[in-house]
Amino acid sequence: MAEVVLAYCSSHAPMMSSAREAAPKEQREHFIGALDAIRQQARDLDVQACVFLSNEHFTNFFLENFPQICVGVGERNWGPTEEWLPIDKVWIPGHEGLANHIMRETLDNGFDPAFSHLLELDHGIMTVYYELDQDMKLPLVPIVMNCAVPPLMPVWRWYEFGKQLGAAIRSFEGLERVAVVGCGGLSHWIGNPRVGDINEEFDRWFCERLERGEIDQVLDMKDDEIELAGNGNHEMRTWVAVAGVMGGAPADVLAYEAIAPWITGMAVAQWDTGRGTARSVGNASGAAPTSPVTAGD
Amino acid sequence: MSLYQLNRAVYDWIRAGEVNSDAAGDGRAGFDLSRYELTDDERKAFDDKDVAAFYTMGLHEVLINRYARAAGYARDDYRKILEPFGKPEERRGRWQK
Predict the structure, then answer these.
(1) Per the CB < 8 Å rule, is B65 touching A120?
(2) ipTM above 0.90?
(3) Which terminal residue of chain A, N or C, has fewer Cβ atoms less than 10 Å from its own Cβ?
(4) How many alpha carbons lie under 13 Å from residue A88 in its C-beta half-sphere?
C-alpha cells in the first residue's frame, strides 16, 4: 500500500518564479528556503509520485463546463502554459494507476470528480511542482479545483474530499511513497480595485489554526467571509483539502511572509507524516523558519 | 450582447497567446473579434485595452487579471486604473479582534 510520506501546502503566486528578485531578500529566502528544505526531504524520502491540488484559473475549463473537481488521469500533462513564466514548457509525466484509483475510490465514497486525460498546467501547480522537482520528471497526478466561479464547493466538503483522497492514496497498491501537495492562497486580490492588498491578520490566524490542529474553525466559512481576505483567498480550499488528507492533524508552518511585490500572503506549511517535517529533520537551512504565530506580531 | 460573449472573447484572446500543448502561443496577432456577439461598447473596450471598462462591464476578475498581464499592464498600473471603483469594506471576519 502507498504511504503519504510528504504532505505540505504552499502559496503559488507566479512572481515567485517570474519576479523572484522583486521580493525583499529576507522574505524570499524565508519562503523559498522552506520549499528548498522540503525538496531535500523529498529526495531523502525517495518520493515516487506526487498528487497536487490547485485551482483552475480558466486554463482548462471555461464557463460552458466548469467542474468543481477534476483529476488528471492521463499519462502526461503539459505545463506551464503562461508564456511569461520562466519555467521550461514540458510534458510532465502523470501516474495513470494512482490517478484512476483516486477516481474510482472517490466515486465510491461520495464524490463525483470529473477527469481529464490531458490537463494544461499553469502557475498554480507548476511553480510549486518545479520547486519540488526541478527536473520535472516526478510523476504528478494533478487535481484541479474550482476556486473561482460560483457556486463553489463548500470548504467543509473540501475537507471531506481530502479525507477520501487520503484514504484512496493509502489503499493504492502500485506505489509505496507518495507526496500530497496543496497550492494556492493565502490572502490576495486579483482583477479588482484591491489588487496588491494582503490581509496579514487573516493569514496569521489561518496559519495558527493549522498549527493548533484547529482546522474545524474554518470549515464553516462561507464565500463572502473568505473574500474578506481576497477573491484569491478561495484557494485556501487547497490547504483545507490537504488538512483532510492528514485527518486534521496540526501542521508545522515553515514560513509566512506577506510579500507585497508578489501581492500575496506567502506561506508554506507541512504536516508530519511520521517521517518528520523539513524543520524537524534539519533540512531547513540557515535561520530556521519562524512560527507565523509569533513572527512579526 | 451578453456577458458570456465578452468573457469568452477575452478568454480566447488570452489563450491564443499562451504556450499550450497544441499551440505555440502566437495567436493573438490578427485575433478575429468578429466571431463574438459584442456590443459596440464591448468591442471598443477590447480595442482600447480598457481594463476599467472591462471591470465595470462585469468581466470575471480572474480574466481581468490574466488579461492585464497579457496586455502588458503592470499590476501597480492596473490597480491605479481600478482603484476609483473600490468601496470601503465594513464587514468583519471571524479572525478580526
Answers:
(1) no
(2) yes
(3) C
(4) 10
